[in-house]
Amino acid sequence: MKCLILGGGGFIGHHLARRLKKEGNEVHIADLGWWLDDNHDYTVILGDLTKPSTWLKLDNNYDEVYNLAADMGGAEYIFTKNNDAKIMLNSLQITMHCINWMVKNKKVKRVFFSSSACVYNQNNQMSRHHIDTREQSAYPAYPDSDYGWEKLTSERLYLAAARNLGLQVRIGRYHNVYGPESDFKGIRAKSVAALARKVIEATTEVEIFGTGNQVRSFLYIDDCIDATIRVMRCDYDQPLNIGSNEALTINQLVDKFIEFKGMKNKMKKVYVDGPTGVNARNSHNDLIQFHTGWYPATNVVHGLEATYKWIEQQLLSQDVD
């Protein structure tokens, strides 16, 4: 098959590119840049997907289109309210350009849209004992961020295009995807990578936003790619969760990293003000298991250790340089 990955230069995107290539597919990537210095056999289209000119560079005969492109980042980017306009305008422009481009190119029919667990109603995520992330619980809508509102709006745009314009749409709601080769510095870094870096760089104490009792589940990148491809190729045309249902507190996550560092009971956790998102979130996987047969295969401790060691290697190599 001929596959296009929008946002293929990003964390999930470049892992997906490798997997699709390994399957024997022809892989095209469209993004602002390609940051991995590896030997690849992809067609890379450089350009800003918020600009109409970039879409003119694409072919018109892809079998699968994966839209992973978005203006996004970690809690320090999404939940501070400082970037809401950019997040909504940039990501919605990409969604609308993608739909219009697909309608124009009659041969391009099937698209996967990467949505987010941030679409869920914040009132259903108040505590560990009050979590409802069943897919239908996104309505009545009340996300805790404009990032969540943008994802929900894009979902509706894609579903409307499926009803009225003949597109074959598949939607996956990602829950905290992590793993090697993710961003680990700056406000774009997600929680796992950012906290791993903090522990690696710390000597006696590590800062945590909030109380550390926030609950999350974390999905290893290999499992995410498996699920993404299965959702793309299944018959179900409504949103599906792509996440782990193995929940941890942020304190437990940091404790794992401290243990990997060999500093168990020797490093202090310091709690500071900062963006935290909802109090508790976990993935509800009944629908995706029913429609695709997928379930996460990676033990969370193994995944976290692999991620920690990769980030540690990157930081050590930077020190040597």
Structure description:
A 7-stranded parallel beta sheet has the order 3-2-1-4-5-8-13, with helices on both faces. It has 10 helices and 15 strands. Helix 6 crosses helix 10 (300-320). The protein has helices spanning 11-22, 52-55, 75-78, 84-104, 146-165, 191-201, 221-233, 250-260, 286-292, 300-320; strands spanning 2-6, 26-31, 43-46, 64-67, 110-116, 125-127, 130-131, 168-174, 177-178, 205-209, 215-217, 219-220, 240-242, 247-249, 268-272. The radius of gyration is 19 Å and the shape is globular. The mean pLDDT is 94. By secondary structure, it is of the alpha/beta class. It has a domain at 2-178 and 219-245 and 283-298: NAD(P)-binding Rossmann-like Domain (Rossmann fold).
CATH topology of the domain at 2-178 and 219-245 and 283-298: Rossmann fold
CATH H level of the domain at 2-178 and 219-245 and 283-298: which superfamily?
NAD(P)-binding Rossmann-like Domain
- How many β-strand stretches? 15
Q: List the secondary-structure elements in sequence, H or E.
A: EHEEHEHHEEEHEEHEEEHEEHEHH
Number of helices: 10
**Proportion of strand residues:** 15-25%
Spatial gap, N to C terminus: 41 Å
Structure at a glance:
By secondary structure, this protein is an alpha/beta fold. The chain is 39% helix and 19% strand. The chain has 10 helices and 15 strands.
List the helices and strands and how they pair.
Layout: E1 2-6, H1 11-22, E2 26-31, E3 43-46, H2 52-55, E4 64-67, H3 75-78, H4 84-104, E5 110-116, E6 125-127, E7 130-131, H5 146-165, E8 168-174, E9 177-178, H6 191-201, E10 205-209, E11 215-217, E12 219-220, H7 221-233, E13 240-242, E14 247-249, H8 250-260, E15 268-272, H9 286-292, H10 300-320
Parallel strand pairs: 1-2, 1-4, 2-3, 4-5, 5-8, 8-13, 9-12, 10-15
Antiparallel strand pairs: 6-7, 11-14
